[in-house]
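Hey team,

Filing this mostly as a record. A colleague (T.K.) asked me to run one chain through the structure pipeline before their review meeting, and I want the input and output archived in the tracker in case anyone asks later how it was produced. No errors, nothing strange. Just documentation.

Input sequence:
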Amino acid sequence: MKKIVLLLSLVSCTIGFAQKKTENKQEKTKKDWSKLDFSNRSADHFMLQYGSDTWTGGPDTIRTKGFSRHFNMYFMIDKPFKTNPRFSVGLGAGISSSNIFLDRMSLDLKAAATRLPIRNLADTSHFSKYKLTTIYGEIPVELRYFSNPENPNKSWKAALGVRVGTILRAHTKGKNFVNKAGASIYDNRYIQKEVGRRFMNGTRIALSGRVGYGIFSLHATYQVTTVFKEGLGPEVRPFSLGVTISGL
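Output structure:
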């Protein structure tokens, strides 16, 4: 949670700094925004995001390893404020995915149990690579700031927002089943995949922030809702950091 607070503070400072710099310039040259047409401007109508994911708040028995990561894609509309087009509201739809790699563990998504079975396989056979993948359909909403509203692709930018989503798919994937000593039991290309959403929280609500220049920015996301349904699994919440490429 501290990480998202720091990011939000950075976004606020960036907006304040950029706005002050812009206002100083405008004191010398005032612009009549009402005479300008922003309807066809390039303003982050398409966003691609990639970066790392971590689970926060979980018990010590949940062990992760490697580069857990996310990939998101959004299509957005941008509505600038008439009185001050440096600010705008972004609204859209898209898909987000998260891959959390677990260390010598397994999640039985297909189980008929009342709580998700989580097995510790440190002292027995296990998959050398094992991950939980979740895919969501999302609606992101952002309050945006562009220091140069006429050309956002050559502008400092910042955004604060919220994302509301619903789960589309959840599955585990294990690769290369090995014994305790790490030797392959089958072929090292052996893969096992299990699909199931019964234990997963169907609703995702997350806070987001971005800050950058031109088509590149850094983003952070903190999921307010838990990954698993209350009482059916550990109370973990993902925190994401990454890079956004935006434009159009």
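Quick notes for T.K.: The two ends are 32 Å apart (CA to CA). The CA atoms of residues 11 and 211 lie 6 Å apart.
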